[in-house]
# Entry
Amino acid sequence: MEKNKDKLGCSPKNKQNEEDGENTGGVLIKLSDVTKDYEIGEYIVRAVDNVSLRINKGQLVALKGPSGAGKTTLLNLIGGLDKPTKGRVMSFGLNISEMDEKSLAIFRLVHTGFIFQNYNLISTLSAEENVMFPMDLCGHPLERQRKVAVALLRDVGLEERREHLPIQLSAGEQQRVAIARAISNDPPLILADEPTANLDQETVNLIRVFFTRLKELQKTIIIATHDDLLIELADRVITFGDGTIVGGS
# Structure
């Protein structure tokens, strides 16, 4: 992987104190009257509609609801991948709704691991290089990057496939690489969008085991899922529909 000379400076020593949630009574994520609209031609589509939500540090929260309900948009707002049209998103004591793009990029690298339904691997990088990529952006030494990447790929059963490109991997293998990449910087917050959708049973079982481990490590985890066994792991289950919370707590 070509060495990135423009590092973002998000080394562990600069990491925001992970006890920030305790400053607000254990609340790590707080959404206040959050709305997200998208313009599609002449129409305005409201994906998230005036949502207020608090999530405590160390909770595993499952978001369930039909496709198109707005779950993915909500995860993107919580993770700083998108900004609300109205309202405020507080995360780790910071108002990420008002951050500029560079600050948001650093914030995401340090605090949040994303697991996407469509994997979002970099097609020109090997499995090992994909896992190393977030660490490279943070400026970790190359030796540490490789050590962590190999260990994580071993954990997901892909040590022997670490030099393969995404196109040479099955869907389940790509999702395993994506999970390893998501936790390579040891983020305190994990956001997952349908992580077990359309995957082989072996990968589904492995992902469930991984989330069990992450929960034991007191990571804060928010999963959009239809997987009943992942929902059973949750401390809270929130039902989302038509862009708003319609059930759960």
